[in-house]
Amino acid sequence: MYTERHTVRARLATFAATLGLLAGGGALTAVTAQAAPAPPAAAPTPTAAPAVDNGLARTPQMGFNNWNSTHCRAEFNEAMVKGIADTFVSQGLKDAGYTYVNIDDCWALPQRDASGNLVPDPVRFPNGIKAVADYVHSKGLKFGIYSSAGTKTCDVQGFPGGLGHEQQDAGLWASWGVDYLKYDNCNNTGADAQQRYTAMANALKATGRPILYSICEWGENQPWNWAAKTGNSWRTTGDISDNWSSMIGIAHRNQGLAPYAGPGAWNDPDMLEVGNGGMTDTEYRTHFSLWAQMAAPLLIGSDLRSASPATLAILKNTDVIAVDQDSLGKQGTVVSGSGGLVVMSKPLADGSRSVTLTNETTSARTVSTTVEAIGIGGASSYALKDLWSKQTSTTTGTISASVPAHGTVMYRVTPGAPVPPPAGVNQLSELAWTSAINGWGPVERDRSNGEQATGDGRTLTIGGTTYAKGLGTHAASDITYHLGGTCRSLRVDVGVDDESTAGGSAVFRIYRDAALVADSGPRTASDPPTRLSADLTGGTKLRLVVTDGGDGIDYDHADWAAPTLTCGNGPAAGTHALSDLQWASAINGWGPVERDRSNAEQATDDGRTLTIGGTTYAKGLGTHAASSITYYLGGGCSTLTTSVGIDDESGGANGSAVFQIYRDAAKVADSGRLTGAEAPRALTADLSGGLEVRLVVTDSGDGINYDHADWAAPTLTCT
Ligand code: GLA
Q1: Distance from Cα 589 to the centre of ligand 1, integer Å
Q2: Which of 115, 185, 322, 406 has the fewest CB neighbours in a 10 Å radius?
Q3: Residue 624 CB partners (closer than 8 Å, separation 6+)
Q4: Count of CB atoms within 10 A of residue 630's CB?
Q5: Nearest-10 Cα torsion for 570, 576, 581, 583
Q6: Regarding beta strands 233-235 and 266-268, do their DSSP bridges make them parallel or antiparallel, or are they unpaired?
């Protein structure tokens, strides 16, 4: 019995295990030891507007925070904050996208004033906070502040927290011109996290000032399940430290949370340590690459006033920043991660992907993947740009690099011109998609979605009906195929796979370019398959989109079953000798199917004039049982007439066969058993509306010897 690993906790454990992290992974233990999460609330999807609804952080926030470089030390003061703002401008960081200059804990005095207001520390900030905010604003930058959703902040000196003072504090900050709040979790008295963080969200909203809201409860209450409604980002882990194992451990834990991030609502794996000295530049490049690949907030945590050229070069890598800031707002996912060689893929708005090849081992290694594995395809060539070395190259499919110990090679992979599907009837699972995005694990071909690795699902099954062909997805999913204007229709059965035993609901939508051309409405795990038919005429792009049914993505194993794509035109209007048309496929018992000749079992054209019971035929198909020939009709043909029989070359009464004609899956003509002794038999088949016609010859159950089977003068009428 299949049991869905449906909690994020379990998913993260499974995920981490695939990265080989479970043994001794201290940071991970903190995740796996947590209590089971509350029932999930609605998760963000590409279509769900974040309820925080402040219009901010449509791409992950970028800026500075002093904590990682100063903690509470005295050098955290007005001069530093102003100096950082100056450096943002003078060193081009502002131009690179860094906007917020934020202060952390220890900015206030330990006591509120007589009116209950927070008081800036007069030694650190002799002119108050508003003066600093004004200075930051004068540089065209934004200013952020810090507090805790508790009675006190985190520092041992115990500065006042915001719990119970939400509106008063928010009002004060707004009056100072604060643009950003980091709201910590210390001294929270055990009060409900959602209530504490929502109280401050409401207070910020009530100020009328747009204030980016950064929730910092360290992932303790599974904020990915609720915080998108509350804030713009949420910390997913405890604090980062300036060393490799801390940084990479946090990356592992944040990597598995990709489905929950989106515009306005980001997973936050904590602030950057780049430049603080505890890692090599190679390790810092990995840190920066992974944070960008995970669409993480990029908050510089080193003292920029004394940053080295190497540090600035990392922080100002505009190609990597562009990945973080991509407007599609997708967090990258791990596509493979065995033996410390971790490949991540992030879909980008222009149809390209960024891919990180990270070598977590302690010696140089080759890290490889493929365009298929990173979720793109359908082109004959792909351009690669190395976002650190800036070198460009092309590939037909393999992506590979020698990566130093603890290093990351990061490519932007851009598909070349896509190739349209062949004319005829195609199963989508046999075509290359141009892009596939999936909620959990990869999109599966001809399997349901098992959430983790390729091929881990089962036979596609909706309401007890099984399907050999199709796509197994998990909401939220978005798959694109290039049509190039050549296709006509898609017919598909959709539904939640039966493996979702504990529920699940999903909505299936088909788009022809920007036009919605089919919509299933919400389908639940107990529904039978729903047939969707979409008119694709003239469309350049086909998109299959699955969103959750409005109740979060848990259990939403969503199947596109037997998705049948019809492309190209069928035969022209009029009457055609079938042997003059090109078949879509031909299978034959001996030798090739012959056009206008009988079947002599070996090479092409080795037969004779088609002859049945002494009657000769100039046109037709010479086959040998068992045979099956398919022609594409495209829905535009009406009838096939033909004579059938065993060719006289079989000699006397030798040979026997059955001739059958199929219009798609329906048998529309059957000759019954015919032996070599019999005269030709006439068949007429109604092909109206059929996408394909299939001519089948069986041996009639007595073996295929002598079964030289002729389709004599088969004539197709199309309108
Ligand atoms: C917590 C937070 C840190 C920092 C400190 C300040 O540890 O997670 O990011 O803000 O508090 O005391």
Answers
A1: 74
A2: 115
A3: 588, 589, 590, 591, 599, 601, 697, 704, 707, 708, 709
A4: 18
A5: 70
A6: parallel
3-state secondary structure of 707: coil
Tell me if 273 CB under 6 Å of ligand 1: no
Ligand 1 within 6 A of 104 CB? yes
Each residue's pLDDT tens digit, 362-373: 999 999 999 999
Determine what percent of the chain is predicted with pLDDT higher than 70.
93
| CA angle (105 as vertex; 310, 266 as ends), nearest 5 | 65
What's the rounded mean pLDDT across residues 610-622? Answer: 97
Q: Whose CA is nearest to atom 11 of ligand 1?
A: 154
On average, the pLDDT of the chain sits at: 92
Query: Which residues have CB under 8 Å from 616's CB, separation 6+?
Result: 609, 610
As annotated, the active-site residues are 184, 239
Question: b vs e for 77-104, b when ≥16 Cβ sit within 10 Å of the residue's Cβ?
Answer: bbebbbbbbebbeebebbebbbbbbbbb
Answer yes or no: do 458 and 370 share one domain: no
Mean pLDDT across the stretch 527-550?
Answer: 95
pTM: 0.83
Q: Looking at the CA of residue 218, tell me the nearest atom of ligand 1.
A: 8
**Rounded to an integer, what distance in angstroms lies between the CA atom of residue 507 and that of residue 556?**
10
**Is residue 256 within 8 Å of 15, Cβ to Cβ?**
yes
Task: Report the C-alpha gap between 359 and 407 in whole angstroms.
Answer: 6
Ligand 1, atom 8: closest residue by C-alpha: 239
C-alpha 184 – ligand 1 centre gap (Å): 7
Q: What helix, strand, coil percent values describe the chain, rounded to 5?
A: 20, 35, 45
Structure confidence at residue 554 (pLDDT): 84
Of 301, 324, 347, the residue at which a domain comes to its end is: 324
Mutate which of 105, 145, 233 for ligand 1? The one with the most ligand atoms within 8 Å of its CB, which is 105
446 and 513 in contact (C-beta within 8 Å)?
Answer: no
Amino acid at 104: D
- C-beta of 601 in contact with ligand 1 (< 6 A): no
User: For ligand 1, is residue 493 a contact (CB within 6 Å)?
Assistant: no
Q: What is the whole-number distance in angstroms between the Cα of residue 67 and the centre of ligand 1?
A: 7
Three-class secondary structure of residue 698 per DSSP:
strand
- Answer whether residue 474 is part of any domain: yes
Q: Token digits for 520?
A: 């299933």
Residue among 239, 242, 272 whose CB has most ligand 1 atoms within 8 A, to mutate: 239
Residue 176 counted as domain residue: yes
Residue whose Cα lies nearest atom 3 of ligand 1: it is 239
Ligand 1 neighbour 76 (Cβ under 6 A): no
Closest CA to 581 of 427, 406, 464, 423: 423
Q: Ligand 1 in contact with 220 (CB < 6 A)?
A: no
**Does residue 48 form part of some domain?**
no
3-class DSSP state for residue 463?
coil
Domain containing 247 — which CATH number? 3.20.20.70
Q: Are residues 353 and 287 in the same domain?
A: no
**Is 571 a residue whose pLDDT tops 50?**
yes
- Specify whether 526 is located in the same domain as 594: no
Distance from Cα 270 to the centre of ligand 1, integer Å: 10
Ligand 1 centroid to Cα of residue 418, in Å, is 48
Residues 387, 439, single domain; the answer is: no
Q: How far is the CA of 65 from the centre of ligand 1 (A)?
A: 11
Mutation probe of ligand 1 site: the residue of 70, 156, 184 with most atoms within 8 A of C-beta: 184
Task: State the closest ligand 1 atom to the C-alpha of 238, by its place in the atom list counted from 1.
Answer: 8
In the predicted model, is pLDDT for residue 668 greater than 80?
yes
Express each pLDDT in 467-516 by its tens digit: 999 999 999 999 999 999 999 999 999 999 999 888 889 999 999 999 99
